[in-house]
Request: fold
Amino acid sequence: MIFSKTALDKAITAFEKKFKCNLCMHDYCGQLDHSILPQEHVNRYCTGIKKNHQRIRSRCILFDQTLLQQQFLKSQKSFWKQCPFGVTEGVFPILSGNELSGCMFAGVFTGDPSGENEVF
Reply:
């Protein structure tokens, strides 16, 4: 099934609104359509942390671009990751056949006593 860019944009917007999160994608192969999702974590929490803490920014980049690829090459399963500041993101491999093409992030979330996810 092929979706139009407009339909895909609407679905992404609905997902982000419903789950109060942002989606982004990292391209490991140089072949993914960069107009679908942002290549950077655009939520205000990650943007603010990376702007004000360059050391942490380097750790985030190392994890997201290197360590995640290594993890997905071992197992192509989705998982939750927690950053050094305690927020959680869902991480999902993007596969082309059996080849790892990239990954998608959904977040950021933190635990909330009410059982709801809270977005920064």
User: Anything to note?
Assistant: Residues 112-120 have pLDDT under 50 and may be disordered.
